[in-house]
Write a structure and sequence with these properties.
Blueprint (H helix, E strand, L loop, with lengths): L11 H21 L5 H19 L5 H18 L9 H21 L1 E5 L13 E4 L8 H11 L2 E5 L5 E6 L7 E5 L11 E10 L2 E8 L4 H10 L9 E2 L10 E9 L6 E6 L3 E5 L13 E5 L3 H8 L12 E8 L4 E5 L15 E7 L2 E2 L4 H15 L12 E3 L9 E2 L14 E5 L9 H4 L2 E2 L3 E10 L6 E2 L2
Antiparallel strand pairs: 1-11, 2-10, 3-10, 4-6, 4-9, 5-6, 6-7, 8-9, 11-21, 12-13, 12-21, 13-19, 14-15, 14-18, 15-16, 15-17, 19-20, 21-22
Length: 464
């Protein structure tokens, strides 16, 4: 028994596509009918009328509609010219260029993506942070992939190629060297970038490890292997081998066997955020704003001002800090006289209260939390952090009770013609900021941190 074919009704999408094709065909015919060869003009008109009749027919089967549309499509391919042609590789390139121009325009005038490399703004913003694994707890490939997607985590590990004690080999008296690296450490895997190169020794064999230049592996090694903060507190061992004559730091008393994993950790990507480039074109930056700025002319600006800077930046990069001083402001850090200093790490300064125009600074939750920590520090010899903020450290230009004035472009002694701003990290114990290199000229301000869009953690959302 032979089955009966039942015509299929056209779907709504097919009707819409056919109507759009008919509209294009009619436009082409109206514009070009006087210039087309008679045969092409007649073929195009017949194809248009055929599709128009099929669309008018309420019960026209999908097969008929498709056939009529295909006839018109073929006629338009031959006669449509610039009105109707399929995209080729040239058009695709043009489309990509237009998209790139739009993206660059948005980046230049509205919002700019920025990834925070260091922890100078911790805990308001996270830079690259480590997650250390125990020897038998290293993640498998699936877990690494999940962490990479959700947290931007990069996995590092060192496998013992021989048996023996673990040492860190000093290079020219330091724990590491800065070197250029391509694959796989380069930017986008191939563009050369600076990295820190560490050399370890196990059983007389050297092992190498490269990490991003902004990542402090020294602190990780000190905490993991000795529970201390500074590698220099580890015992120095001078090698008998001439290649090791500069000395080694003994990281562990344990004897590792070949194949063991003495060190495994993840480096979690710093907060990726959007920077609002638009607002500062219309409003002045306010104390308390988390600002992003370029460093290109900071050294030159402070040299013209005569700032007694303690160091120079010497590079053109983007920094993020908290704005604490506007043009004309007077700043000072006062260390409470009754503060407990026993056990204070003098290498990181003494905590104090940050004053702006003779009043404790306000305008940001980070200001409040840092001042709170300083007061807790002053009341107790227990210097444990309770909120993540370490308090402001009197150091550099803001050493204890040393007042500074933020330059205003109308100041008689300001020969730059520019306003200056003063910026500090919320984590002032580990922040190289205005206390060391001085003021930020107004022309280097990029904008205000707006929104953390990655990684997907509880910090995701509007910046504070």
């Amino acid at each position: 028994m032979t089955g009966t074919h039942i015509p299929r009704e056209p779907k709504r999408r097919e009707y819409k596509t056919a109507k759009e094709l008919l509209r294009t065909g009619t436009k082409v015919w109206l514009y070009k009918k006087d210039r087309l060869p008679p045969i092409e003009e007649r073929a195009l008109k017949i194809a248009i009328d055929g599709l128009k009749d099929a669309l008018k027919e309420k019960n026209s089967p999908a097969e008929v509609l498709e056939k009529k549309a295909r006839i018109l499509d073929e006629a338009l391919r031959k006669s449509g010219g610039h009105f109707y042609h399929k995209k080729n590789w040239v058009e695709n390139v043009e489309m990509l260029l237009v998209a790139a121009i739009v993206i660059l325009g948005i980046r230049s005038f509205f919002v700019q993506p920025f990834i925070i490399p260091t922890n100078s703004m911790y805990p308001s913003f996270y830079g690259m942070t480590p997650y250390i694994y125990e020897e038998d707890d290293s993640p498998n490939l699936l877990e690494r992939a999940i962490d990479k997607v959700l947290l931007g985590a990069s996995h590092y590990q060192m496998e013992a190629g021989s048996s023996g004690t673990l040492y860190l080999v000093l290079q020219n008296g330091t724990s590491h060297q800065y070197v250029q690296s391509n694959f796989p450490n380069g930017r986008f895997f191939v563009i050369p970038t600076m990295v820190r190169k560490y050399v370890f020794e196990i059983g007389g064999k050297e092992h190498f490890l490269k990490v991003p230049a902004e990542f402090d592996l020294d602190e990780l090694l000190a905490k993991k292997f000795a529970g201390i903060e500074n590698l220099r507190d580890l015992p120095m061992v001078v090698g008998q081998d001439a290649s090791l004559a500069q000395g080694r730091l003994k990281l562990s008393e344990r004897k590792y066997s070949k194949g063991d994993i003495p060190l495994a950790f993840d480096i979690l990507l710093g907060d990726a955020l959007f920077v609002d480039r638009m607002s500062y074109n219309f409003i002045r930056p306010n104390a308390g704003d988390p600002i992003v700025f370029r460093t290109e002319s900071i050294d030159r600006f402070n040299s013209k001002l005569g700032t007694q800077a303690f160091t120079q930046i010497g590079e053109d990069k983007y920094y993020i800090k908290r704005l604490v001083g506007e043009p004309g402001d007077e700043l000072e850090i006062q260390v409470p006289e009754d503060i407990f200093t026993n056990g204070t790490d003098v290498r990181k300064g003494v905590p104090g209260i940050l004053y702006r125009n003779n009043k404790p600074i306000n305008g940001s939750g980070a200001f409040t939390e840092n001042q709170k920590q300083t007061r807790l520090f002053a009341k107790s010899a227990n210097h444990r952090l309770v909120n993540g903020y370490p308090g402001y450290r009197a150091d550099g230009l803001l050493s204890n009770r040393n007042k500074i004035k933020v330059p205003h472009k109308n100041d008689p002694n300001n020969q730059t013609g520019l306003n200056g701003y003063f910026a500090m990290g919320d984590n002032s114990t580990d922040s190289l900021d205005g206390r060391a290199w001085g003021f930020v000229p107004e022309n280097e301000l990029i904008g205000r941190a707006l929104f953390i869009y990655y990684p997907f953690t509880k910090r995701w959302g509007i910046s504070k």
